[in-house]
C-alpha cells in the first residue's frame, strides 16, 4: 500500500529523480509515465572491503575457523521468491543426477519468512547434504565468504542495480547472473549470463566454470576490471551535479 500510494506521489512531486540503472529508469518511464529528462541514472559502486587482497593463508584460516567446505558455490541475499533461489536448487539437482555435483552450495542470508519454502525445496529434491544455510552474515565476514567461493550465483528475476554480483566480481570470484532487469547492464562482460527460467542453462554454466580453469581465471579478471568502472566518488560527483541543476532551476 505504501509503495503503491506514496512512491508515485513522491516521484511526481520531485524535481529530479536519481535512478540506479537504465533499467530502473525504463521502469519509471513505462510504469509511472515519468518524462525521461526528469531522470538521471547514477550507478552504485562497491565498498572498499570488497577490494581487499587476502592471502591464501588468511582465506584458508577463515574457512577452517568457520567450518566452511574447501570448495563451494555461493548465493548471498534474501530468500524472497524473486531472488530465484529455486533455479539454483533445480540446477544442482541436474548436476547431481549427472554425477557432476562436486561442491556444496552455501546460502548466506537471514532465515526470513521465505526460508521454509526454500528449505522444503532443498529437502524435496534430496539435496540436504549438498546445501548449507549460513543464516545472517556480518558485513565484516561477507567479503571473506564471497572471496572463498569458487563460483558466485545470482540468478535474480529483478534487481534495481544488483550490488551482490558486482561485489563478487570485485573480489575476483567468477560470477553467474540472470539476463533479467539491470543485471546484464551492470555486469557487462564480467560475468556469465544465463536464462533465469532455464535450470539446464545454469547447470551448464556451473559445469563450464567448474571444469575449465582458464575460463574461471578469465571471468575472474574480467569481473575485477568491470567492477572498477563503478566508483563511489563518481557517484558522489554526479549526485552533486543533480542537486546543483535543481538549485539552478
Protein described:
By secondary structure, the chain is an alpha/beta fold. The chain has eleven helices and eight strands. The protein has helices at 2-13, 22-32, 56-66, 85-97, 115-124, 142-147, 163-170, 183-187, 199-211, 213-227, 232-248; strands at residues 17-19, 39-41, 72-76, 104-108, 131-135, 151-154, 175-178, 192-194. Strand 7, helix 8 (183-187) and strand 8 (192-194) form a beta-alpha-beta unit. The longest helix is centred in the C-terminal third of the chain and has 17 residues, at 232-248. The chain is globular, with a radius of gyration of 19 Å.
Give the structure's gist in a few sentences:
49% of the residues lie in helices and 13% in strands.
The tally of strands reads 8
Assign a percent range to the helix content. Answer: 40-55%
Task: Provide the structure class.
Answer: alpha/beta
N- to C-terminal distance: 33 Å
What coarse outline follows from CA principal-axis ratios?
globular
How would you sum up the major sheet?
6 strands, parallel
Roughly what fraction of the amino acids lie in strands? 5-15%
* Unreliably modeled segments: none
Could you tell me the mean pLDDT?
A: 96
Walk across the major sheet and give the strand order: 5-4-3-6-7-8
The number of helical elements comes to 11
Order of helices and strands: HEHEHEHEHEHEHEHEHHH
Radius of gyration: 19 Å
How does the SSE layout of this entry go?
Blueprint: H1 2-13, E1 17-19, H2 22-32, E2 39-41, H3 56-66, E3 72-76, H4 85-97, E4 104-108, H5 115-124, E5 131-135, H6 142-147, E6 151-154, H7 163-170, E7 175-178, H8 183-187, E8 192-194, H9 199-211, H10 213-227, H11 232-248
Parallel strand pairs: 1-2, 3-4, 3-6, 4-5, 6-7, 7-8
Helix pairs in contact: 4-9, 7-10
Amino acid at each position: 500500500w505504501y509503495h503503491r500510494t506514496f512512491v508515485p506521489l513522491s516521484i511526481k512531486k520531485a524535481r529530479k529523480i536519481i535512478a540506479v540503472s537504465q533499467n530502473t529508469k525504463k521502469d519509471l518511464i513505462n510504469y509511472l509515465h515519468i518524462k525521461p529528462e526528469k531522470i538521471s541514472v547514477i550507478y552504485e559502486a562497491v565498498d572498499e572491503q570488497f577490494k581487499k587482497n587476502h592471502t591464501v593463508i588468511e582465506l584458508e584460516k577463515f574457512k577452517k575457523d568457520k567450518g566452511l567446505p574447501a570448495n563451494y558455490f555461493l548465493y548471498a541475499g534474501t530468500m524472497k521468491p524473486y531472488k530465484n533461489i529455486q533455479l539454483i536448487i533445480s540446477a544442482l539437482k541436474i548436476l547431481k543426477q549427472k554425477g557432476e555435483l562436486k561442491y556444496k552450495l552455501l546460502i548466506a542470508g537471514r532465515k526470513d519468512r521465505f526460508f521454509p519454502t526454500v528449505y522444503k525445496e532443498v529437502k524435496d529434491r534430496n539435496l540436504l547434504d549438498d546445501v548449507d544455510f549460513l543464516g545472517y552474515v556480518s558485513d565484516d565476514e561477507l567479503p571473506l565468504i564471497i572471496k572463498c567461493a569458487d563460483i558466485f550465483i545470482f540468478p535474480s528475476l529483478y534487481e534495481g542495480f544488483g550490488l551482490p554480483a558486482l561485489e563478487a566480481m570485485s573480489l575476483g570470484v567468477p560470477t553467474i547472473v540472470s539476463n533479467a532487469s539491470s543485471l546484464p547492464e551492470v555486469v557487462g562482460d564480467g560475468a556469465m549470463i544465463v536464462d533465469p527460467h532455464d535450470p539446464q542453462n545454469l547447470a551448464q554454466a556451473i559445469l563450464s566454470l567448474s571444469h575449465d580453469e582458464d575460463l574461471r581465471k578469465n571471468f575472474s579478471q574480467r569481473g575485477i576490471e568491470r567492477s572498477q568502472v563503478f566508483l563511489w566518488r563518481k557517484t558522489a560527483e554526479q549526485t552533486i551535479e543533480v542537486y546543483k541543476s535543481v538549485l539552478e532551476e
